[in-house]
Amino acid sequence: QVHLVDSGGGLVQAGDSLTLSCAPSGRSFSSYAVAWFRQHPGKEREFVAGISWTGGGTVYADSVKGRFTIARDNARNIAHLRMDNLKPADTAVYYCAATPRLPAGRVHTSEEGYDYWGQGTQVTVST
Question: Disulfide-capable partner of 105 in 57, 81, 96, 114 (CB 3.0 to 4.6 Å)?
């Protein structure tokens, strides 16, 4: 069992940047693919970005390409989502997710592909 802790959310203005962090509690997740999903109020959770366990493969939703960057540091057992040029449409609860079931270089873009989830961190972008 892996318990993920995601953090770093907050209230910012449009155009600002934020960095979210995801770290497992009590064990390494260096062999786990990691992804971020988000959920807007009243809507289903959607894929934002993912990174393979080797760090060599990354996938982004079209809505965040060029603005968000996902990275991981397996030596420090942590993953980050750097969010630049934030827009009000990015306002959502962001969730970190991880799975050990993917081969090197692969990333899932669906919720069903992930086994472990963080508790969520709120990101609010004002105009």
Answer: 57
Report pLDDT digits (tens) over 72-126.
999 999 999 999 999 999 999 999 999 999 888 899 999 999 999 999 999 999 9
Contacts of 102 (CB under 8 A, 6+ apart): 33, 52, 53, 108, 113
| Gap between the Cα atoms of 125 and 127, Å rounded | 7
Separation between Cα atoms, residue 61 and residue 11, nearest integer Å: 22
The sign of the CA dihedral 89, 90, 93, 99 is positive
Give the Å distances, CA to CA, from 1 to 52, 76, 117.
Answer: 19, 19, 11
Distance between start and end Cα atoms, the chain = 40
